[in-house]
């Protein structure tokens, strides 16, 4: 275990937490989880079980149990609660909300392994990321292996502060911690949904973006001021619609994007290329089955227009360049 020489890790807490760790075997790959209630609620990361057909839980004492039920999911925060078939022999970890570590603080990721002893990784918090009222998370200084997703994370006092997840953001691998404050509400359920409910998050996680790559000629005849206005409108729609989507209001996000596209089509008659791109996005929505797919189709449309507008502004002579920045899409930290 790597540790900072000027600090002592909470050895007693780490030892006491070890029996509560669970190695998950998910369709031939491994992940981590941990027992969170006496009733057999098992916490892990949603992305590691999304779409799973077979899940087996290997407890620290070697007991192997088949998991057939899901108690709760939080797609926005990459959390899943599985239900063991019988009460576990090990005590649950306390996931009561606690104060989060700050930048530079040390935390410990307990990764479940075959056998009773976990792998313990000490990490420092790079930053506390506040993505809105729906999520605050910790970004770690180093990445995590994929099978560490779902591991409990302890602070220097030995308290469980969150759930580790290996994530991608803007093409970069990250180690993140989802705070326990989001776990506790998921444990207040007695539901037992079948594994088939994991298919929807798998489909979303595997979504392939289809952002159009427009030539600069699409904006022939445009002016910097007009394109700045379009970019600002698109950026505002994304910065409003993306949080709504993350809160679970998928239909509201789609309707906002559709209204934005329709307003821009009416207001940019002088730029038939931009109108055509927006109409193509709305037309694509007509053949899609649900609001989730339609919201992403319009998001792809908006990102394609923002990209070509940004490239167009970069090649203009200095006096013609935009005085207001093009609003970038918001960061996406979770898988």
Radius of gyration: 23 Å
Helix vs. strand class: alpha+beta
> How is the biggest beta sheet arranged?
8 strands, antiparallel
Total number of strands: 14
CATH class of the largest domain: Mainly Beta
Distance between the ends: 28 Å
Number of domains: 2
Average pLDDT level: 85
Protein name: HtrA protease/chaperone protein
Organism: Myxococcus stipitatus (strain DSM 14675 / JCM 12634 / Mx s8)
InterPro entries: Peptidase_S1_PA, Peptidase_S1C
GO molecular function: serine-type endopeptidase activity
What report would you give on this structure?
Residues 1-6 and 320-324 have low confidence and may be disordered. Strand 12 and strand 13 (172-179) form a beta hairpin. The protein has helices spanning 11-17, 46-49, 199-205, 224-246, 250-267, 272-286, 291-314, and strands at 21-26, 29-35, 41-45, 55-59, 64-67, 69-74, 79-83, 106-111, 119-132, 135-140, 152-154, 160-169, 172-179, 193-194. The protein folds into 2 domains: 11-205, Beta Barrel (Thrombin, subunit H); 216-320. Helix 4 packs antiparallel against helix 7 (291-314), helix 5 (250-267) packs across helix 7 (291-314) and helix 6 packs antiparallel against helix 7 (291-314). It has 7 helices and 14 strands. An 8-stranded antiparallel beta sheet has the order 5-4-1-2-3-7-6-14. Strands 8-9-10-13-12-11 form a 6-stranded antiparallel barrel. The protein is an alpha+beta fold and 335 residues long.
């Amino acid at each position: 275990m790597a540790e900072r020489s000027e600090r002592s890790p909470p050895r007693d807490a780490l030892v006491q937490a070890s029996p509560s760790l669970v190695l998950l075997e998910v369709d031939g790959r491994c992940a981590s989880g941990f027992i969170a209630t006496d009733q057999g609620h098992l916490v892990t990361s949603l992305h590691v079980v999304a779409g799973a057909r077979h899940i087996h839980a290997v407890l620290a004492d070697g007991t192997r149990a088949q998991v057939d039920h899901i108690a709760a999911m939080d797609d926005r925060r990459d959390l899943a609660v599985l239900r063991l078939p019988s009460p576990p022999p090990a005590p649950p970890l306390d996931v009561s909300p606690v104060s989060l570590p700050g930048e530079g603080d040390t935390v410990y990721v307990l990764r479940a392994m075959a056998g009773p002893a976990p792998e313990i990784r000490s990490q420092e918090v790079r930053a506390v990321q506040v993505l809105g009222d729906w999520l605050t998370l910790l970004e770690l200084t180093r990445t995590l292996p994929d099978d560490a997703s779902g591991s409990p994370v302890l602070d220097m006092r030995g308290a469980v502060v969150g759930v580790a997840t290996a994530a991608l953001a803007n093409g970069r691998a990250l180690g993140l911690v989802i705070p326990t404050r989001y776990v506790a509400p998921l444990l207040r359920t007695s539901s037992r949904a079948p594994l088939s409910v994991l298919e929807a998050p798998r489909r979303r996680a595997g979504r392939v973006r289809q952002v159009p790559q427009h030539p600069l000629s699409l904006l022939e005849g445009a002016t910097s001021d007009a394109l700045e206005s379009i970019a600002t409108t698109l950026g505002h729609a994304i910065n409003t619609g993306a949080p709504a989507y993350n809160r679970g209001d998928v239909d509201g996000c789609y309707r906002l994007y559709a209204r934005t596209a329709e307003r821009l089509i009416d207001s940019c008659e002088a730029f038939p290329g931009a109108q055509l791109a927006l109409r193509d996005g709305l037309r694509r929505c007509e053949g899609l089955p649900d609001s989730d797919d339609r919201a992403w189709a319009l998001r792809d449309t908006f990102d394609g227009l923002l990209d070509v507008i940004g490239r167009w502004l970069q090649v203009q002579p200095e006096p013609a360049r935009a005085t207001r920045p093009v609003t970038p899409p918001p960061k996406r930290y979770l898988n």
